[in-house]
């Protein structure tokens, strides 16, 4: 079974920040578009310094990963 989880509920303000991060990561080449049926939900977490951290929840992928 492929790891797929529905996206978390995201507010409009958070969606703008997420889109900014995704565009930045695409431009830098850190990520690329994919047509795979595997998906992991994303969320924003506040840093202690007051900034925002872009997080991906890979629990589903980690659950099916075969360890060495």
Overview of the molecule:
- The protein has one domain.
- A hairpin with a 5-residue loop joins strand 1 and strand 2.
- Strands 1-2 form a two-stranded antiparallel sheet.
- It is 34% helix and 15% strand.
- By secondary structure, it is an alpha+beta fold.
- The chain starts with 11 loop residues before the first helix and ends with a helix.
Which short descriptors sum up this protein?
single chain, alpha+beta, globular, 68 residues, two-stranded antiparallel sheet, 2 strands
Summarize the structure.
The protein is of the alpha+beta class.
Major β-sheet strand ordering: 1-2
Helix content: 25-40%
The number of helices is 2
- Biggest β-sheet: count, sense, barrel? 2 strands, antiparallel
Low-confidence stretches: none
What fraction of residues sit in β-strands?
Answer: 5-15%
Radius of gyration, in Å, reads: 14 Å
Q: How many separate domains?
A: 1
Helix-strand pattern, N to C?
HEEH
Q: Please tell me the overall pLDDT.
A: 87
Q: How does the overall form come out from the CA principal axes? A: globular
